[in-house]
């Protein structure tokens, strides 16, 4: 993984790149993403200057591959990604080295074809000297951050952005290309977008902003296609409300003949987790892998599957975050003490402990570190101003703020073991459960659509839309947040093979919204968890991280998630004043 900075400008119109204001604003954040190595290459093409800077977090290969990487032909690559499939990478070889070597052999058309075949999370900038073109983009799901900023004579690309300029996320809708010679009169006008084939209908708005080039095939085909005869929708028998949820889940999976599909899903997830837990170089620490862990079914399944592939002498860190809850005034010292002792006893802490115990019972030879990450209101305000507000940019809603804060503290990994021993996780790879809710109808809006329309097709259309637009929503933000700690996020539910498998299934196999909450949504994953022995996690209620960690309640604000968040704009002193008053 690396931090990327690239700037291209007419040399007569702009100062030296590495001294410009944008670079100075974000270089510290880029260095935090890649603490192991840093390199700069500056070159020119006619009257156009090109500036490449890279910061490396060493994850693959026996030796660090410095970035930007330059070939003997003069081609330059900035690569922030992992190659899981679509390109041969020899054992012990850096994927950056393998990719640059392959790109060196390609002409213009072959460059596009090679990049579109790579499976895994990535963002990149590639300068091809012979044709004077710069290619850049993000993978289909936008799992790695890439943002851009431009004016008439300058184009800047980076992994993170600043508050002091107008930035946008690069859309994960294809590969962009700038012909440097054509761009001397204005780089934006010369950008050509080569869109992914699977998202050209309906045509995204971003396609209208640029010239459209060749339509690219990808490994992804996300529109759901299935034969209903293979998965008939069966009537549900009447089940008494007194029956335990676990019994209802097991009976429903049996009645619907879901167990074979659950096991096929487990096989796909196993392969996904295997790729994401083996594609890294050991740091020599006792723990190399962590899990963002609420105790819910999504993350618990990932943790259990990770146990299969991680050496038994390594620990796995389960990172569980909770935010300080306001203390209610009490009349007695005894009740005051009780309230104080429970200010971090939030829903995710409770389910986290329960699922942690299940993992210990199922995998007794593994050392599981359940890390209780407790965040005070003062520290929340401080780190929001120091780090999180800039990393969230260009995202700026109340929901972005809540999720970004929760993920930043969780991924930092500073907390307590056994409720008392101070601990900081050194895991550089973090498994994240994002993607399960979008694909398996885990959100309340999915149930609302079904309840209003009694139409599985409408729910399927919503799922399809959410998967197609995911690159424009959350994952770039999450990458910026997690990478700030010199760690890498990996998303097993967004593995290309997993996504295509789920897209091949009808909605009622993935979720049965006729069943009650905590069972019907994500029933395929819940059935898989049951089959793996995670009986408690299988029926754990769905809670978004901002509610499970109680960050949404900690500040006691009546806001809507889509509102613009003023806290991301406020200065530190004003926030500390607000939080101190909030505790009174």
TrEMBL record:
Pfam families with a match to the protein in the record: Asn_synthase (PF00733), GATase_7 (PF13537)
Protein's GO biological process: asparagine biosynthetic process
InterPro entries noted in UniProt: Asn_synthase, Asn_synthetase_domain, GATase_2_dom, Ntn_hydrolases_N, Rossmann-like_a/b/a_fold
Keyword list, A-Z: Amino-acid biosynthesis, Asparagine biosynthesis, Glutamine amidotransferase
Domain of life the protein comes from: Eukaryota
Gene Ontology MF, one: asparagine synthase (glutamine-hydrolyzing) activity
Domain Glutamine amidotransferase type-2: residue ranges: 2-221
Coiled coil: none
Name of the protein: Asparagine synthetase domain-containing protein 1
Protein species of origin: Ciona intestinalis (Transparent sea squirt)
